[in-house]
Amino acid sequence: MTLILSAYDTDGPGDARDLTRLLAALPRERLRRLAILGKTEGTATLNDFSREVAIGAAKAAIAGTLGSDVAEQATLVFSTGCEGVITPFGYLMAELEDGAPRDPVAPARLALGVAATPDIAIADRGGRAHALAVADAVRRAMADAGATPDQVAVVFVKSPVLPRRHLGELPAAVAARAGSTAIARAAAALGAAIALGEVDEARVQDAAIGRDTTLHARRVMSFSGTELSNNEVILLANVPGAGGDLTLDSEPLADILDAPALLRLARRAGLPADEHGLFTVQGPEAMFLKVGVRPGGLVRGRRTTVFESEMDPDKHMRPVASGLLGAVFGTTRAFISGGAEQQAPPGGGLAAMVVKAR
After folding, report:
1. Domains recognised in the chain with CATH numbers
2. Which end of the chain has the smaller Cβ count within 10 Å, N or C?
3. Ramachandran bin of 223, using left for φ above 0, alpha for ψ from -120 to 50, beta for the remaining angles
4. Which tens digit of pLDDT belongs to each residue from 61-105?
């Protein structure tokens, strides 16, 4: 297998012209898996329909270029919110058959696995059953990639939010999750962490999700939305003999201002530094950033208004992270997501980078 990863920019959620160009260059007869992870502009609120527009445009482009069967099997995950200096764009990931079996002693290269859960029942969303469904899907994505848990580099999960319109028909404990994108992200993160062996399944109970900060994943980025009723999983793993020339490395972020973590990641990847010690000369093939702020809004011991303004907290986090990453790498094209509930210790986050193997 050989994984191809390419980025494409968009002029709006419904623009798929650059994506169509990339799709047309793929060898249809060798295509095994196709996935898109995209950032689209929009309000990033519960009733933001830009995700549906972006998914529809991408699916139409795939169907028109590679066929409706490929479009139906493709995994399409879009996250809204390009505040700051984030260019609306997508990463196209295509895994191609190369006809050769994997050599277990060959260097590790990037492999792709995908899976989805069944629809999550309304009363289960944000609870233990939601997390366990994600755990099962991540295990299937690992099998799809031919990877073991220790080889997994990062897992992306798009998770459904419990709509507020169901408030009147739910028990109080379940109704408390309604409209909470944070709880949806937390449930997905803990489910993936179970599959990766990062948390004990027995500890992932309803009361712990979104609350027990001692439970968190280490290689998971989760997002939530109202455009889906199931969970979509995209998994990337460094697997010996996978083929191609890509690898992925990650680094935990101590907080939203942790520039040294980004520098460490770039140095390990062997990226050339400029005269200022930054990495604006030759960037990575792909960059992913999940950021958070401690409950209460303290950053390095000082008060912020992240949780005390009229703006959603994510709308504070994404601009900060885009400026930090843009300064270090000289780019506006990076997949940046705010809200790291149970994807890191409180206030922490995760940076991940795809580069060509040295």
Report:
1. 1-100 (3.30.1330.170), 102-244 (3.30.1330.180), 245-356 (3.30.1330.160)
2. C
3. beta
4. 999 999 999 999 999 999 999 999 999 999 999 999 987 788 888
